[in-house]
Amino acid sequence: MRFGSGAALAPIALLLGCAAPTLPPAPAPVSSPLPSAEEAYSGAIFVEGALEQGGWLRGRVPPGTARLTLGGARVAFDSEGRFFAGIDRDAPASLRITGSAANRQTISRDLLVARREWQIERVDVPLRGSVPSETFMAIRRPELAAIEAARARRSDSAGWLQTFVWPVKGRISGRFGSQRIYQGVPGSYHSGLDIAPGGSGAPFVAPADGVVVLAAQKPFSLEGNLLIVDHGMGLNSAFLHSSRLAVKQGDRVRQGQTIGYIGATGRASGPHLHWSLKWQDARLDPLLFLPPMP
Ligand SMILES: [Zn+2]
What we know:
Blueprint: E1 46-50, E2 56-60, E3 65-70, E4 73-74, E5 82-86, E6 94-101, E7 106-112, E8 120-123, H1 134-152, E9 171-174, E10 179-182, E11 185-186, E12 193-196, E13 203-205, E14 210-215, E15 225-230, E16 235-242, E17 244-245, E18 252-253, E19 258-261, E20 273-279, E21 282-284
Parallel strand pairs: 8-10
Antiparallel strand pairs: 1-2, 2-5, 3-4, 3-6, 6-7, 9-12, 10-11, 12-20, 13-19, 14-15, 14-18, 15-16, 16-20, 17-19, 20-21
The site of zinc ion (ZN) has 5 residues, from loops.
């Protein structure tokens, strides 16, 4: 199924669990005027991607669309009607996608979201450290503020349109979504993918084009030398625990470009790269953006 030039006639297409999507060919620009009150707003919202918890979707809205929402969250689209949206780890079994015209006509469909079996480990010890000390929080608050400010920075990067590449090859030492339950009390789940290439110092690369919105000047208490790259459309990557970074804030990076070096700074049990992906507030599974490891 491909994007055609006649968006209003584009068929409804769904590709389930497609981990290595092909880039849709660039569609013709949407040049038709917005429909008037008398004209019908019609056509289909084209969607493809990994429609599962922690997954994502890309698609295209028909001409005349003024607003798009997914599960109530506003979704941006470009001048050609193309959009990206993420599906949170804990998303419900169905999400409604709705396009609205300026004249308030709407088109909707319900997208089925496949449920994941997360790696859950039940342990018979109490959850510790739930109340951080004031000394820790005095350091932590400005770090959290810096992360929040960085994630609010939006760039015009088109990295969201690309098929992602592995930032580094190595053993998968931690999976997205895994969680421990301490005597019935759930701890927070693992928010990223851990890759351990063996030892420190190996370079890692940008999995897609982007703009550096945060490059730590000194190690953060948990994340170490934190790097955040914005891929556009509300999608961003965070890379934790680097021994050092190869880029600075504001840099434009290309897919495959070295952006840092593996390390164990911050709270890390050994040298590895923790890579997390977020779209707006949704946490996504990096494995669903990648082809099998080469
Ligand atoms: Zn991790």
